[in-house]
Structures are given as structure tokens and as C-alpha cells.
Write a structure and sequence with these properties.
With 193 residues, this protein is an all-alpha fold. 65% of the residues lie in helices and 0% in strands. It contains nine helices and no strands. The chain is elongated, with a radius of gyration of 30 Å.
Length: 193
């Protein structure tokens, strides 16, 4: 019975996934390298500076993306599970690639640990910046109206806590304002038409 509840793990092609990730993240590295080359303050920077001067950025991005995806996919295939440990393993190896630039073993371990933590926690908490997935069976308009009904507060309660002003005015505000101005300053405002 328990084996029917769990989905069967489907192995993934690690070489294909890492090649695609290398190309995608490497392309992002090309754009960042072009921006770095554009912002260089030296007078005779050519278009080839994208490759010659700041080309290390392209290589770093491509290596990090490919290493992350390869390690994540291989870890999933070896463990036969899709959980938050796979991105953490991929993050550790790709962080190690970032740490290699500093030519120090503590930097490799430190960057690996930081990226492993970030990737593992991000995947564990849902893997989205927008929060948890919403129920697709509920109409979005109905869901929004439900939220508004639950969060709406009566105007009397709002006026009692905040008072009038700042765009929040209760019924009869104009008459009370006219009376207050007449008592304090002796100014008689005309009735609105």
C-alpha cells in the first residue's frame, strides 16, 4: 500500500541537463561580461574585451551552472529521490567552483557550504519566490473576494483606532469640520452644493 502512494523515481539524463545549464548560464555570463566590458574606464576597450578582458566571467558562470546541474542530477539518480538534498549537493559543488578563484581550500569549502545552504533551503521551502502554490481548482476572482471579505474591517473600527484624516473620513465629517473651524478660528464655511 505504501509503495503505491510514492511516485516511482524516473532517472534523468545528467549529461544533457548539464549541457543545457552550461549553455543557459554561460549565455548569462556573456551578457554580464559585456556589461563589465562596457563599464571599463580604460580608453581603448574594444568589443573583443568581452572575451579577452572579462572572459573569465563567462567561464565562471558556465562552469558553475554546468557543475550545479550535473551534481544535482547525478545525486538524484544515485539516491533515486527528488528532495532538497539534491540541490544542496549541487550547490556545494558549484560553490566550490566559485571558491576555486581564491585558490584556497577554506574558500572552496566556505563558498560550497553557503551555496549548498541557500539552494537546499530554497528548494525545501517550495523553490519559488512567490510562495506556496495556490489551489488551481479555485477561481482566482472568488479567492480574491474571499480574502477581501476576511480582511475587511468596518469603517467605525478603523475610525476608532486611527481617527479621521489622512484620507479616512466617516459620515458627517464635513459638518464636524465646519463646526470645528467656526469654534477655533471663527471662520464660517459655506454649505456644499
Amino acid at each position: 500500500m505504501a509503495s503505491e502512494d510514492k511516485p516511482v523515481f524516473q532517472p534523468k539524463d545528467a549529461i544533457n541537463a548539464s549541457a543545457q545549464a552550461t549553455m543557459i548560464v554561460g549565455t548569462a555570463g556573456v551578457f554580464l561580461s559585456a556589461v563589465q566590458n562596457t563599464l571599463t574606464r580604460q580608453p581603448n576597450v574594444t568589443a573583443w574585451g568581452v572575451i579577452t578582458r572579462t572572459g573569465g566571467t563567462i567561464g565562471l558562470f558556465a562552469a558553475v551552472g554546468g557543475t550545479y546541474e550535473f551534481a544535482r542530477t547525478v545525486a538524484a539518480n544515485l539516491r533515486e529521490k527528488d528532495d532538497a538534498w539534491n540541490p544542496a549537493i549541487g550547490g556545494f559543488f558549484s560553490g566550490g567552483i566559485v571558491g576555486l578563484r581564491f585558490r584556497s581550500f577554506p574558500a572552496v569549502l566556505g563558498f560550497g557550504a553557503v551555496l549548498a545552504t541557500i539552494q537546499g533551503v530554497f528548494d525545501y521551502t517550495g523553490g519559488k519566490f512567490s510562495g506556496f502554490a495556490r489551489d488551481n481548482t479555485v477561481d482566482e476572482y472568488e479567492r480574491t473576494e474571499q480574502v477581501r471579505r476576511n480582511k475587511r474591517r468596518p469603517i467605525e473600527e478603523t475610525l476608532q483606532e486611527l481617527g479621521e484624516g489622512r484620507g479616512i473620513y466617516g459620515p458627517g465629517y464635513e459638518e464636524r469640520r465646519r463646526e470645528r473651524l467656526k469654534q477655533r478660528y471663527g471662520i464660517d464655511l459655506p454649505q456644499p452644493t
